[in-house]
Design the sequence.
């Protein structure tokens, strides 16, 4: 019998996958690329699709990478359920992922969809009310199983049908990772990443840059490669409203130079220095200011 998972490659999704595999299900784990994961190698332009985490394959599951950057950019522009503490539309993001997982569940006649969510771990999207809302608006209703905290939640359709039992699901809740680390040892999961915020949109400084760029974009929709540009250089608003991105090291210069169709690239003459992208068609005053900043 098949089950579809949504996974990030973090500890929670590894454990959820491991638990469902151990229950005897043939698991297909979906790893979604929304475009706002920290880039491991910023020398690339950022248009490539992120590969599925190898760690999920080690849990005994098949894994498939799903590119939803375009759809997510539209969600980010105007999230129905708003943003978290920064520019993170966590509820709408989870609904988008689970909606895609539901289609895969129906396509493969799988028994249910599961996620690595933990009750009370995230203040915006992992409260009981929010978790119920996400299940409903994704169209999954009670076909969404949360193996790490399902013992604390109302029974789902697979439990009512006897496909799984509630006592086979964990009862983890809260922000501490102690229970997850103990479960990892029990399940033999030893190679897992250090917990992080994961999405760049939870970072205050990155979110400030992204929010400014959203306001400058027509219809508030970002391009697929905008997240990479937002991660590099110093971002400066010029006197007449233009924007410059100034490299701080050679690797960042290389990234900035790859964006040259977006506007002129400035470099200091005859001496080593930064590459500066001036977006769009700058006014003479803004171009002069960007040149002075580059020289300085």
Sequence:
């Amino acid at each position: 019998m098949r089950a579809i998972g949504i996974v990030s490659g973090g500890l929670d999704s590894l454990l959820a996958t491991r638990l469902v595999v151990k229950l005897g299900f043939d698991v297909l784990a979906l790893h979604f690329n929304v475009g706002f994961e920290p880039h491991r190698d910023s020398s690339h332009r950022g248009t490539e699709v992120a590969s599925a985490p190898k760690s999920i394959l080690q849990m005994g599951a098949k894994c498939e990478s799903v590119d939803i950057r375009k759809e997510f950019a539209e969600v980010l522009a105007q999230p129905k359920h708003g943003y978290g503490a920064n520019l993170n539309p966590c509820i709408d993001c989870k609904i988008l992922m689970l909606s895609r997982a539901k289609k895969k569940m129906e396509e493969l006649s799988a028994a249910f969809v599961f996620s690595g969510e933990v009750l009370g771990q995230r203040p915006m999207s992992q409260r009981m009310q929010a978790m119920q809302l996400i299940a409903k608006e994704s169209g999954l209703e009670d076909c969404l199983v949360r193996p790490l905290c399902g013992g604390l939640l109302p029974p789902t359709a697979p439990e009512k049908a006897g496909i799984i039992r509630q006592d086979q699901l964990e009862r983890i809740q809260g922000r501490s990772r102690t229970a997850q680390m103990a479960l990892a040892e029990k399940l033999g999961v030893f190679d897992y990443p250090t917990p992080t915020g994961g999405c760049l949109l939870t970072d205050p400084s990155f979110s400030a840059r992204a929010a400014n760029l959203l306001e400058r974009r027509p219809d508030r929709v970002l391009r697929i490669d905008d997240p990479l540009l937002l991660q590099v250089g110093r971002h400066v608003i010029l006197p007449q409203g233009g924007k410059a991105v100034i490299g701080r090291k050679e690797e960042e210069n290389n990234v900035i130079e790859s964006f040259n169709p977006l506007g002129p690239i400035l470099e200091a003459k005859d001496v080593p220095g930064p590459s500066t992208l001036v977006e769009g068609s700058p006014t003479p005053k803004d171009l002069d200011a960007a040149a002075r900043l580059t020289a300085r």
Remarks:
- The longest strand covers residues 26-33.
- The mean pLDDT is 92.
